[in-house]
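anyone seen this seq b4? input:
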Amino acid sequence: MTETALSGVVPCFQIKSAHVPLTAIELNFFDAGLFEETLRDKIRQAPGFFRDIPMVISLEKYQAPTAELDFFQLIGICRRHNIHVFGVRGGDEDQRRMARNASLSLLPGTGRSEKTAQESHPPAEPSAPESAPVEAAAPAERPAVPARIINQPVRSGQQIYAPEGDLVIVAPVQPGAEVLAAGNIHVYGPLRGRALAGVHGQETAQVFCQSLEAELVSIAGHYKISEDLQDSAWKAPAQIRLMNDTLAITRLDKT
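predicted toks r here
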């Protein structure tokens, strides 16, 4: 069948949803020299983690004047280090207009700043209701997503991904391998590669393993590399969770 005939039968492309884990740079202010210096330091800590990674710039904690924000310069710095900035999360109208002019995608904010404002200034309670409250309909229960279970060793260079739930690996994760999950990660064996839990931002996600020997562990974008992990529970059963924006490691074989 010729290409011309095939084009009349098979569509040129299809659009489907894709569950892709993303990492965000939470920008507090932008100074080109300091930004690149900090970026180099992060890359030295975990070069494999940052190589060719897609990145989002989060402006939800940005505190400096908008005039100091130069997306073209920021994108150029990241490209020099093989990091691909494709979008902006949050930001005010002027900042998002500047991002659009730099050909960046616009992503909605997480709503954390709005939630904080509401908690600090809660609305005043009405003195008396004008009418009886209407009973809200109970939200439909979301069906539980079964865990993805892997029964074979995860080899170097291999990536295993659970886009909607937990990931359970009943075997070792070898150096150079990468395991990712929207929820928790359980490794019933040595964890020697990279483990990224809560890749969609679930901060309650945790990582469990029978022997912590990882190159990198990340939960909701917060990570520690091998040198930091060796301070506690190294080569021992471990539980890793996020507490106050820092990974906390608990050794599980202590009585």
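The chain has two domains: 18-115, 148-251. Confidence is low (pLDDT under 50) at residues 113-136. kinda curious what u guys think
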